Amino acid sequence: MARQIALLRGVNLGARNRIAMPELREALASAGFDDVRTYLQSGNVVLSSDASQEQIARECERQIAERFGLDIKVVLRTRDELAEVARRNPLHAVAVNPKRYQVSFLAAEPDPDVVRKLEAVAVAPETFVVIGREMYAWHPDGVGRSKLAAQLGGPRLGAVATARNWATVTAVLAMADE
After folding, report:
1. With CB atoms counted within 10 Å of each terminal CB, which end of the chain scores lower, N or C?
2. 56 in the Ramachandran plot: left (φ > 0), alpha (ψ -120 to 50) or beta?
């Protein structure tokens, strides 16, 4: 069975969209996924399945809606796709703090017009690189104050998107390799 990474958008942010990870693991295991594990409380799930990514994402969303009453979107990557994200690491020379280095995972490649609008928001020394369905962004002054960061997980991207810091990206990849 293939290792898959399900990245849930917008869970456990303050009091919004609360999902207990043990209950999420139980729901996904009962839906037929194997070796379901979670990382942190922010909706990072590693599981095994032979279903297509589309089927896995829809089943995860259905389970969350039925069990928790929440409309949560899910972005999927295979273990190999996540390894490629980590291998690319286009901002490794400048992104020295993994908490301020983020990757936005999109369900589809962004439209070039969207990328141009993001370029206008990015203020040096902040920078970002788009490669396929990922946007790598370095926020040296912090994510909370960044106008760019506010745009990278939202609906303005034209596709479902969710961001993870570099520490989480590498930790989830390590978990997928266990």
Report:
1. C
2. alpha
